[in-house]
Amino acid sequence: KGKQGKKQQTTIEVTELDKAKLDLKVLRQKLTKLETSLITRQGKLKDDGKKLLKEGRRAEAKSALERIKMYDNSLNGIRIKISRVEEMLVAMEQTQQMQEFGE
After folding, report:
1. How far is CA 61 from CA 7, 37, 45, in A?
2. pLDDT tens, 38-56?
3. Which residues contact residue 27 at a Cβ distance below 8 angstroms, ignoring those fewer than 6 apart?
4. Can you state the angle between helices 2-54 and 58-102, rounded to 10 degrees?
5. What's the pLDDT band for 14 if we cut at 50, 70, 90?
6. Residue 1: CA count within 13 A, CB half-sphere
7. Which of 86, 96, 90 is nearest to 10 (CA)?
8. What is the band of 3 on the pLDDT scale with cuts at 50, 70, 90?
9. Which pLDDT value is given to residue 100?
10. Is 8's pLDDT higher than 80?
11. For every residue of 50-96, which 3-state class applies, written as one string?
């Protein structure tokens, strides 16, 4: 009975670690999807800005440029978050390997 209790407890710990890793991977995927979406929108804004300049609509082109800069700031923040999530995933995987090695 004593061994079975330990085995079940170990399984629960691994399951929780796997769930945490899965949650981080899902978060990373969502952030990456958001990053891609912002890059696409930013590209469209650049094209629109060029078109507006050619048409002589400087005020609207300036507004597009400001939105492009806003997207740049958002993208930088998203990339930092993705990097942090990846660092946490690496740390979790290293911890899991150390635990498995110690058993």
Report:
1. 65, 21, 9
2. 999 999 999 999 999 999 9
3. 85
4. 160
5. low
6. 0
7. 96
8. low
9. 77
10. no
11. HHHHHCCCHHHHHHHHHHHHHHHHHHHHHHHHHHHHHHHHHHHHHHH
Quote the Cα angle for 43-78-61, to 5°.
30
Q: How far apart are CA 48 and CA 67, in angstroms?
A: 11
Extract the tokens encoding 54.
Answer: 């050619």
pLDDT at residue number 16: 82
Q: Which residue has the higher pLDDT, 13 or 90?
A: 90
Taken as a whole, the chain contains a residue count of 103
Hey, what are 27's tokens? 């978060």
Angle at the Cα of 85 (from 84 to 91), degrees rounded to 5?
A: 90
